[in-house]
Fold:
Amino acid sequence: MNQETEFVEMIKENETLIFKVTAIYGKSEEDKQDLYQEIVLQLWRSFKKFRQEAKASTWIYRVALNTGISRLRKEKKSTDNVPYNAQVHSFIDTQDSVLEERSKLLHTQINRLNDIEKAIILLYLENKTHSEIALITGITASNVSTRMVRIREKLKKKITKH
Structure:
């Protein structure tokens, strides 16, 4: 299998990961599409260096999150808030208005987290272990554990105020 075919197959298999990152770090639909293309471009540029020591999904998450965060930092000068798309993580697929309201509140509070906290919570919600999150984000597993405790506390405080 040639390199291009291998790359395309890997992107197709892990496309939902990229969509989730673009949904968190993209503002408009057009912005999400641009970010998607930017992530795929960065993946292609670094594909030759991918040694497959980690799972492809771990590598893709890392590149996608770094690309999204880097882009946000560039744009941060003009904006203060990045919208979190509640459709990314459909925690509750139900018509129950109370549960829907709680879900919306959670997503609103996640939106207010800083860039690295959003990345960590996204990976946590994807059922990644602390070790996997550490590998993807480039921080230690113990730091991930500490940050997760703080993120949960922060979210709990903000949600219970409402």
User: Anything to note?
Assistant: Helices lie at 3-13, 15-25, 29-47, 56-75, 97-111, 115-125, 130-137, 141-161. The domain at 87-162 is CATH 1.10.10 (Arc Repressor Mutant, subunit A).
